[in-house]
From TrEMBL:
It comes from Gracilariopsis chorda. The keyword Chloroplast does not apply. Keywords: Metal-binding, Repeat, Zinc, Zinc-finger. Residues 1-25, 26-54, 55-83, 84-112, 113-136 form the C2H2-type domain. This is Zinc finger protein Gfi-1b.
Length: 146
């Protein structure tokens, strides 16, 4: 299956069940979500249902549900890190998703958002919404056409 090795057979069984068989035997009692590890279930319950935000940024006081989110926040907000460079033009991004969107719309010229009124196409939904307001007088609600 894979080259992973484990100190205990129970760890191997858990790995096979959750990674290779994609088993999610731990169900949330509050919603339909299921998880491969009991710790994931508890983290979900604590952050989603109890809305716990136990991790705080020392610089600005913003709170987060997970420690990793604090590190990501500090890297992008306070340190200005842009670890994702575009291989085509060299522009750098804070988030991988923004790099992916950049490549698709700028370099590959993808325009997946089409105006229902006139057929004009746009790379970003926000551009379509702005067009719809300015050209057609349509009102948008929370970033989506109503």
């Amino acid at each position: 299956m894979c080259a992973s090795t484990f100190a205990r057979s129970s760890y191997l069984r858990l790995h096979v069940r959750t990674i290779h068989e994609k088993a999610k035997p731990f169900a949330c009692e509050q919603c339909p979500a299921t998880f491969g590890h009991v710790s994931s279930k508890y983290r979900h319950y604590r952050t989603v249902h109890l809305k716990r935000r136990d991790f705080k940024c020392d610089r600005c006081g913003q709170t987060f549900a997970e420690r990793s989110a604090v590190f990501k926040h500090c890297r992008t907000v306070h340190e200005g890190s842009r670890p994702y460079p575009c291989e085509i033009c060299g522009f750098r991004f804070h988030f991988k998703l923004h790099l992916t969107q950049h490549v698709a719309t700028v370099h590959e010229k993808q325009r997946p958002h089409r105006c229902k009124e006139c057929g004009a196409c746009f790379g970003q939904r926000s551009s379509l919404n702005r067009h719809s307001r300015q050209i057609h007088g349509l009102v948008t609600k929370r970033g989506a056409l109503s």
